[in-house]
């Protein structure tokens, strides 16, 4: 039996999550759910797996864990915009 990074999910009350992802990520998530089913013999939806994947990702991020331990800066204090709109470009 394969050892997936994500262990068998604990009993829980299911909740619904709605997100938009690209086609490649959607296929990868569906493939993961299929492998999960094959590995553990239980079918879980992608929406049921995603929260546990995110927890695993966050718990495995050492920089994030250190920042949380040291106290994160105020909300939005260190955020930088990802894109610069054409209206904010210097036209000189």
Automatic annotation (TrEMBL):
It comes from the Bacteria. Residues 70-92 are annotated as: Disordered. This is DUF2274 domain-containing protein. The lineage of its organism: Bacteria, Pseudomonadati, Pseudomonadota, Alphaproteobacteria, Hyphomicrobiales.
């Amino acid at each position: 039996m394969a050892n997936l990074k994500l262990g068998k999910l604990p009993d829980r009350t299911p909740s619904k999550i709605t997100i938009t992802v690209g086609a490649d990520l959607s296929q990868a998530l569906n493939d993961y759910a299929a492998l999960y089913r094959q590995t553990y013999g239980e079918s879980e939806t992608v929406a049921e797996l995603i929260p546990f994947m995110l927890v695993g990702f966050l718990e495995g991020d050492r920089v994030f864990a250190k920042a949380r331990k040291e106290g994160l800066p105020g909300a939005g204090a260190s955020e930088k915009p990802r894109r610069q709109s054409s209206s904010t470009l210097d036209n000189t």
